[in-house]
Amino acid sequence: MYLTHLGHACLLVESGGRRVLVDPGNAGTDWHGITGLDAVLVTHQHPDHLDPDHVPALLEANPDAVVLAEPAAAEKLERARPLPAGSRHDLGGLVVEGLGGRHAVIHADLDRIGNVGMLLSADGEPTLLHPGDSYEATPTGVDVLAVPVNAPWCAFKETVEFTRSIGAPTLVPVHDALLSERGRALYLRQLGALGKGDVSDLAGAGRTEIV
After folding, report:
1. Is the dihedral of CA 167, 170, 174, 178 positive or negative?
2. CA atoms of 116 and 70, how far apart (whole Å)
3. What is the pTM of this model?
4. pLDDT in tens, 112-142
5. CATH code of the domain made up of 2-209
6. How far apart are CA 202 and CA 211, in angstroms?
7. Distance, CA of 149 to CA of 169 (rounded, Å)
């Protein structure tokens, strides 16, 4: 498996002979112009995970890419197929499973939207969980956990408990666009000290092999 962190919650995943982009949102631009994708995955409809202004150009540049999205998000995208929680889609060598179903609580006054975590697995390669904006689903057998390190919907103590409940050996920090450089470093130090798993910071690292 190769991973590239393309800003905030966006990951390029290469596994099972497939190139998959997860959560191309408006909190970063590093994913703009990417081609050669086999699939685009969207955990939910918030713009920092689904950029309404630039995703259409992404899909136009990748006409053969399968688009799988949380059902409400799928309604906002041309050619998107809904991926409800509990469903699976085989991309041919790489299986995507939808987990959870609901976004984490931001505030009691705000309605909860849908959120489907994406579990990616291929024979002989690490299994990756990208939870989107929720710590609700805690599957077993996860080797690599994309960890949202900062958001209006989570407290750091919840982040730590989430990593412990998953028990993945490798933690990849994501969802970090709201942090300053110094603040992000503090979060990652504490995640390394308290979270369960080794922190693999891919920000600025380019394409990285995960074993």
Report:
1. positive
2. 5
3. 0.97
4. 999 999 999 999 999 999 999 999 999 999 9
5. 3.60.15.10
6. 14
7. 17
Report DSSP state, residue 137: -
The closest of 169, 176, 135 to 195, measured between CA atoms, is 169
**Pairwise CA distance, residues 41 & 21, whole Å:** 6
On whether the CB atoms of residues 59 and 31 are closer than 8 A, the answer is no
Rounded Cα distance, 29 and 153, in Å:
23
In DSSP notation, 146-210 reads EEE---TT--HHHHHHHHHHH--SEEEEE--TTS-HHHHHHHHHHHHHHSSSEE---TTT-SEE-
* Residues 108-147 as b or e (16 or more Cβ within 10 Å = b): eeeeeebbbbbbbbbeebbbbbbbbbbbbbbbeebbbbbb
Q: What does the domain layout of the chain look like in residue ranges?
A: 2-209
pLDDT tens digits, residue range 61-100? 999 999 999 999 999 998 999 999 999 999 999 999 999 9
Evaluate whether 113 touches 81 at the Cβ level (below 8 Å).
no
Q: Is 43 helix (H, G, I), strand (E, B) or coil?
A: coil
CA torsion angle 132 138 140 145 (round to 10): 40
Amino acid at 107: H
